Amino acid sequence: MVPQQQRVRGERGSAAVEFALVAPLLLAVALVVLQLSLALHVRSTLTAAAAEGARVAALAGSELPAGERRARELLDGNLASGVVTGVHAGRVIQDGVVMTEVRIDARLPLLGLFGPQSLQIAGHAIQEHA
Questions:
Q1: DSSP code per residue over the chain
Q2: What integer is the mean pLDDT of 33-52?
Q3: Which pTM does this prediction carry?
């Protein structure tokens, strides 16, 4: 049996080696979680702006450019504003119902080459009639 003192002396400095091996893995996991959080935040912000733009454009007496402007207003000064490449509004017919659609084209902020590089978000609202 090995005495307690010899065992402690033999393991001296092992904590630093273990930290050096584990720290890069923990850092990589933390960065992946941060990147995923950023991508989900941008996607949800774009979705909310597209839906609000569609609601504004679908109001009775409103024009399609009003929906585009509203979506851009919501995105201006936001973290997601830097990734937007275009905002387009139009009318679509879905199941016989006239709807207003606001579509936002954007780049997804990813560091790596994995996953979608571009994102297309659409918001819909039923067109009101005066």
A1: ---HHHHHHHTTTHHHHHHHHHHHHHHHHHHHHHHHHHHHHHHHHHHHHHHHHHHHHHSTT--HHHHHHHHHHHHTTSGGGGGEEEEEEEEEEETTEEEEEEEEEEE---SSS-S-SEEEEEEEEEPP--
A2: 91
A3: 0.79
